[in-house]
Amino acid sequence: MEQTMSGLIFSVNELNLMLAPGQVVDGYIEVRQPLGQAFEGVVRASGVGMECSEARIGSRTGMFPWRFDADGFEDGDVVDGSFRLITDRGEYSIPYHVLVSAPVSESMSEQIMDKDGFPAMAEDDWDAALAFYYSRAFTDILGTDADRALYAGLSRDRGSSRNMESFLVHACGKAPVTFETEISGIETEIFGPGFQSRVRHPEYEIGILRSGWGHTKITAETDCDYLTLVPASLTAEDFEGNAAFPYGSGSMIPGSMQAGTMPGSSSGHRSRPGSSP
Description:
- This protein is of the alpha+beta class and 277 residues long.
- Helices cover 15% and strands 35% of the residues.
- It is globular.
- The N terminus and C terminus are likely disordered.
């Protein structure tokens, strides 16, 4: 599909690639002026691995070639970047997203005959399931128009674990990941002058319980200037199974407080609808 951008027409408005470690892929993007008027400019690619073999573009060539070399990349690596075009018809940016993934083995693909078997595969090996989810073979296990339409919308951001989690929940019936904290609040006291050395419990650990399995990403924030959250985000690697995990320390900064009671709150946000092993 062609996309018009302020006087120039591009054959794509976003480039998504999936390739194996060490693979080299070549391609090109067409550039035209809708009224056939002359134009010229230069193009640069950001991000590691992406190259533009010809820096200059113009109405005579009508395109610019690109090459992505996955040499040195490993299975699961993701590269986000963009092509930046500076022309006498304006400046433009075409984003690209690259997922480096080992090929899905035939034996693994043959084991998944329909979508009902996909959740077990994802729970056993999330990365392998992610590669299969973004492969051409995945549509073969989708038996209804509704599933295919849902997948079409949840496969555009290639390499996204959150999108696969959404598909597992809405199409396969997987229970979403849920979280709860071990405590509902924290209360402390600060005493008069010299309170720096007289703060009760200056550090706290907030345990978080995770229920279920799947894509996990939690970020936290607080509206208190005198509290800091360490760490400010959690992924599945921070949990030991689904057991409680000490979220971190809410550290008080004495220099910013006064004696008495200091109200405040902290809140957490998670990837929806669930959260990557």
